[in-house]
């Protein structure tokens, strides 16, 4: 663990926001025993920071490998390693994370000069809102799981009740921690904080992996539904190779509510784990980071609906039609034998919408290329993470699409429904790629500043020089800048307006494409085509791997598109 060195005591406040540079006399430089002989204090600090990141990363890697080995053993050998064993390991990790988070809240963050800087780019309101939304849904999921296990206590173990109970405490504590401290650039106890953050990231990754691969309760519900169908058809009872001792849910309303609630809220838990990992990673990158005043934005652009008409109009139309399709789909798919027409309607909606989104993203990218705005090359961990998450989350949908393409081409691609799913898969891949290019290019463009704000910024940065200028000279400089701005604005008005229209249209489209799978529309699993080709368990893992990433991609795209809209 590193020690900390303070040049001299300071009487100023403990914490400072990102509105200005902090006094260098308060800085706690990092130290590491491997680099204790470095002559330069700054060089020793940089090397200690790299070593701390390396060791904390190794800790997370070992925890993830250990947990993955447990989960894989449970999948391939359910006799030696049971789900209860995996839950015990996860409970230990959760308790360790809880101890560290409480220590950070009550100890580390309250030390003198612990938080000298706060990253203004980290912890956007939509990210923190997602943590609260998905965290609340995850708490309800655990409540439903506790209720379901309590009703079936005769065939369930006590671990089925203890694990979700600890999960509720973990979710509440972590959500509070991320809401209040996601912007912190901690300057004390650097390596201990890095290790705590990496342990929490590893725990959330393992919880996500467990949610993706654990299909026990889904198998129970699937078995009961198939049992009902076979009784009506007069066939033999349904059995699943991975689940033999079936816990039959009593024919009561409360048990059915717990079942339905669990299935409905299941994707939110995986989303919560992914969002927490992204926020925690930014905090990990910001440990020991010192932000100069050049990185601090002087004025944040505000969200305004000025000059946009067609984007909101087309986007609202897509949202209304999508909501109607979603409601009709939900009504039809809840029956024992879903109508084939409802799948045709669902995929037809996507086949119409996805090309429009792709064309909009391509046009927006071309407009970016025509603009003469400089690229923002300042170091920004949040933006770098946004790019990684957009590219990584898109792999979920793209991977599922390629699995669907292989299954459909190998079966009967000339069938109407198969042709629609095939077209949907190809269009979805193209839409993800074009939208990623548009968002990433927009995120790296410098903000557009109004002339008044631009002059205010220059005045703040060169106040001493302006004092030496006469009033007449200053007025002439302002006139030149204003004329230059008016000339450039007249040439860029249509480009900025087109970018805003496209961004707003894509925001609304991504919102409805996020709502539909999040609240229960899963035709990739319910149409039965890919499931019959790959098998129940294999397709279950593929869907639970790709679907949460797809939902996370839509949600993250909304944030990126809003950033592009505001900075256009």
Characteristic terms for this protein:
single chain, 568 residues, mainly alpha, 2 domains, two-stranded antiparallel sheet, two-stranded antiparallel ribbon, 17 helices, 4 strands, globular, disordered N terminus, Otopetrin, transmembrane helix, ion transport, ion channel
What can be said about this structure in brief?
The protein is mainly alpha-helical and 568 residues long. It has helices at 41-76, 83-106, 125-151, 159-181, 190-213, 216-233, 253-286, 310-333, 340-370, 381-410, 416-443, 451-461, 463-468, 471-518, 523-526, 529-534, 536-567, and strands at residues 4-5, 29-30, 117-118, 184-185. A two-stranded antiparallel ribbon has the order 1-2. A two-stranded antiparallel ribbon has the order 3-4.
Structure report:
This protein is mainly α. The protein contains 17 helices and four strands. The chain folds into two domains: 233 residues, no CATH class; 220 residues, no CATH class. The chain has a two-stranded antiparallel ribbon with strand order 1-2. Helix 5 packs across helix 17 and helix 10 packs across helix 17. The N terminus is likely disordered. InterPro entries: Otopetrin. Pfam families: Otopetrin.
Number of domains: 2
Task: Report the biggest beta sheet as strand number plus sense, adding barrel if it closes.
Answer: 2 strands, antiparallel
Shape: globular
Q: Distance N terminus to C terminus? A: 45 Å
**Total of DSSP H or I helical runs spanning 4+ residues:** 17
> What is the percent of helical residues?
over 70%
Strand percent estimate: under 5%
- Radius of gyration from the CA trace? 27 Å
Quaternary state of this entry equals single chain
Structural class: mainly alpha
Q: What is the strand arrangement across the widest sheet? A: 1-2
Global mean pLDDT: 76
- Number of strand segments: 4
Order of helices and strands: EEHHEHHEHHHHHHHHHHHHH
Low-confidence stretches: 1-24, 236-245, 294-299, 450-469, 488-492
Keywords: Cell membrane, Hydrogen ion transport, Ion channel, Ion transport, Membrane, Transmembrane, Transmembrane helix, Transport
Family: Belongs to the otopetrin family.
Organism: Tyrannus savana (Fork-tailed flycatcher)
InterPro entries: Otopetrin
């Amino acid at each position: 663990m590193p020690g900390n060195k303070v040049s001299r005591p300071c009487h100023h406040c403990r914490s400072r926001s990102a509105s200005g540079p902090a006094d260098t006399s308060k800085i706690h430089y990092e130290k590491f025993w491997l680099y204790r002989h470095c002559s330069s204090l700054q060089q020793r600090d940089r090397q200690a920071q790299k070593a701390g990141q390396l060791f904390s990363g190794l800790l997370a890697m070992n925890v993830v490998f250990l947990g993955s080995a447990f989960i894989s053993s449970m999948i391939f050998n359910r006799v030696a390693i049971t789900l209860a064993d995996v839950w015990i390991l996860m409970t230990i990790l959760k308790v360790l994370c809880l101890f560290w988070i409480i220590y950070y809240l009550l100890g580390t963050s309250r030390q003198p000069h612990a938080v000298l800087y706060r990253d203004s780019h980290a912890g956007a309101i939509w990210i923190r809102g997602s943590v609260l939304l998905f965290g609340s849904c995850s708490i309800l999921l655990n409540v439903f799981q506790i209720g379901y296990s309590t009703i079936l206590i005769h065939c369930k173990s006590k671990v089925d009740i203890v694990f979700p109970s600890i999960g509720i405490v973990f979710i509440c504590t972590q959500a509070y921690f991320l809401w209040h401290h996601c912007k912190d650039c901690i300057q004390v106890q650097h390596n201990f904080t890095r290790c705590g953050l990496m342990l929490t990231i590893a725990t959330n990754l393992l919880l996500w992996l467990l949610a993706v691969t654990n299909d026990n309760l889904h198998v129970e519900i699937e078995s009961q539904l198939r049992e009902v169908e076979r009784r009506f058809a007069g066939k033999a009872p349904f059995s699943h190779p991975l689940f033999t001792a079936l816990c039959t849910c009593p024919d009561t309303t409360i048990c059915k509510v717990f079942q339905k609630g669990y299935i409905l809220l299941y994707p939110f838990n995986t989303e919560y784990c992914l969002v927490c990992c992204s926020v925690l990673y930014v905090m990990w990158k910001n440990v020991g980071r010192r932000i100069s005043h050049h990185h601090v934005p002087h004025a944040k652009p505000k969200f305004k609906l000025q000059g946009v008409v067609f984007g909101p109009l087309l986007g609202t139309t897509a949202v209304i039609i999508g909501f109607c399709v979603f409601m009709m789909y939900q009504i039809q798919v809840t029956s024992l034998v879903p109508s084939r027409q409802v799948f045709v309607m669902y995929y037809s909606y996507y086949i119409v919408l996805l090309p429009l989104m792709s064309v909009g993203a391509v046009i927006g990218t071309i407009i970016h290329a025509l603009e003469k705005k400089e690229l923002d090359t300042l170091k920004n961990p949040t933006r770098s993470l946004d790019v990684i998450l957009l590219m990584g989350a898109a792999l979920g949908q793209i991977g599922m699409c390629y699995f669907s393409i292989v299954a459909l081409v190998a079966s009967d691609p000339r069938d109407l429904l198969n042709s629609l799913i095939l077209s949907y898969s190809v269009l979805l891949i193209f839409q993800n790629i074009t939208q990623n290019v548009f968002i990433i290019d927009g995120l790296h463009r410098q903000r557009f500043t109004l002339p008044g704000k631009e002059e205010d910024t220059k005045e703040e940065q060169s106040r001493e020089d302006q004092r030496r200028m006469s009033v007449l000279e200053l007025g002439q400089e302002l006139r030149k800048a204003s004329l230059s701005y008016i000339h450039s604005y007249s040439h860029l008005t249509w480009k900025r307006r087109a970018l805003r229209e496209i961004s707003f249209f894509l925001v609304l489209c991504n919102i409805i494409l996020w709502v539909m799978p999040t609240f229960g529309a899963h035709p990739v699993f319910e149409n039965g085509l890919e499931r019959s080709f790959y098998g129940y368990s294999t397709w279950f893992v593929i869907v639970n791997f790709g679907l949460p990433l797809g939902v996370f991609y839509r949600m993250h795209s909304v944030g990126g598109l809003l950033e592009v809209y505001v900075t256009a």
